[in-house]
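Recap from last week: sequence in, structure out.
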Amino acid sequence: MKNNLFVTILILSFLLISFSLWADWNEGDGHKMHFPQLPDLNGLDIRATHPKVLADDWECSETGWIWDIHFWGSWFNDEVGTITKFHLSVHTNNPGPPSTPDTLVWEHDFLQGEWEERVYDTGNQGWYNPNSGFYCEDNHQNIYQYNFFLPIDLRIPQTQGEIYWLDVTAHTTEDDSLNDRFWGWKTADLEAYPEPYTGTHFMDDAVWGDFPDPVWNELVYPPGHPRQGESIDLAFVINGDETLPVELSTFTGIYSNNTLHLYWVTQTEQDNIGWNIYRNNQTEFSSAEQINQQIVEGNGTTTEPSYYNYSDESQELTIGTTYYYWLESLDLSGQSHVYNSLVSITVPDPANQPPDYEKPVVYSLNAAPNPMLNQTNFHFTLDRDAMVNISIYNLKGKLIKKLPAVAANSDEKMTIYWNGENRYGTELSSGVYLYKLEANGKPIQSQKLLIIR
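Predicted structure tokens:
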């Protein structure tokens, strides 16, 4: 049962990037890594069918968000099976030696229909299974390109000059396994690398392991191959947007304590001075009025999520009337942008509202990654609409940081980002902390969080 104090919130025309907004990637398109590692048309495919997982590293060439991931692969004997899901993850770098994936930054299971694939080319390609050492030449011909375009809430921050790892494993059907239909990740064409890397591999060897707890092993060309004993690079591209726009990901509102409250979240911002809020009692923006007397200060340029709220305390609001709200961002160049995101809230009659909130039920609450290095995301789902805060405490019960409130919708998975800093902007030291979820001002649930520096 939803809390009667909260009114139904209608979010109209909310333009978010989704899996359906797909495109392709072609040689010469943009990238956000050292350089694209294109496929070797006459190379190898390394078995990467679950439980086997492969990983290769890249150097970030521009700070920002990863918007899309692309890689190439083929099927053993050209017998195409069914990939039920791809598990992709991104890790920081353990310099070793040998260099291997380290702390988990991001992971996601992409189900059928959540990626795009196409026939890329053909060539005489070999096959290699590093577990058994099995290697054969001229095993298959067809090469496939796999494109993953990330919606806003799945985009991955990266920092220029840092080394990251991409891990890939393909899950196939039981029938595929019984009939030797295996998928492999393709080796990169070293001759296509730019100078001074032409003909030589980039940085560290790719690695392989087996789920659930991979023990990483370096990948080198097998005995009998012309490059026997040399390091293997895998074929993939990491890409992102050319700029960091003010990217609105959430805009919601609730009515409580005789006041209309608006909440919004951005994923990235560039030169954002701040915000104006507009209101109307009809759905036409052209006749809406600006209601904030002072600009709501923005966060300039950032690749971290930013949380905002504004309370409409106008005495002119009428019971039973529906009000519509818009956001306008302003940048340093003097440009403004009104978002096609419309929140509507109907003012209820206070006499018909209950005296207090019921305590929401938390269906789920977790932090990922946990342990965390520099940042984490708190994920939760409630059984009703509520105003939610996440607060961080040390084990002595001292408040370290209270994150901005968000409006949580019933039965919707919500996410709150934290950069690991206290209220003064200082990174917390390694240790065990508590994070507590409060809904409607009431403590609901707490869990432990481990920080490793």
